[in-house]
Amino acid sequence: MDNLVASLPTDSQKVHLEDKSNIASNIKRPAPSSGGCRIEGYVRVKKVPGNLIISARSDAHSFDASQMNMSHVINHLSFGRKVSPRVMSDVKRLIPYVGSSHDRLNGLSFINTRDLGANVTMEHYLQIVKTEVITRKDYKLVEEYEYTAHSSVSQSLHIPVAKFHLELSPMQIHFSEEDFLADSIDPP
């Protein structure tokens, strides 16, 4: 598993770094045989259903789909604005009511051990629910997105991909933490 996320030496990337100014645009060549890539970043999208697809694609390379392995490790996957660790610990204090589905896929590995065959696509189906929490401490509104995830593998007729199906729930959870005893004694 370490070879999936380890840094690649620069020697294995010479095809990508060479001067391509004299190369005709219609020449196809095999893709480098180096081991994999690391992807990090963020994507801004509208709050509508959609797919995030990670695949190999290039006009200058031809790919042998039977040799592609779409194994991956998800270090972090979240939705919405980043919530500070202090606020998140305050939100997670309210478990089992909220916060248990915040980072479902974090730290999970999805490895194709090759006994599944060639051209294996790995798909993740995510149901995303907006959650609003008003904490008792500061009466501050914290917006976060929780999700449930189901993953599957399937044979692909084309180049295999890692696919994330995003489905936003039309409902949302609103959780307000209040002190019952204080409200009973001192009504607003």
Automatic annotation (TrEMBL):
InterPro entries membership: Erv, Erv_C
Transmembrane portions of the chain: none
Residues annotated as domain Endoplasmic reticulum vesicle transporter C-terminal: 33-178
Domain of life: Eukaryota
Signal sequence interval, chain numbering: none
GO cellular component, one term: endoplasmic reticulum
Name of the molecule in the record: Endoplasmic reticulum vesicle transporter C-terminal domain-containing protein
Annotated organism of origin: Sphenostylis stenocarpa
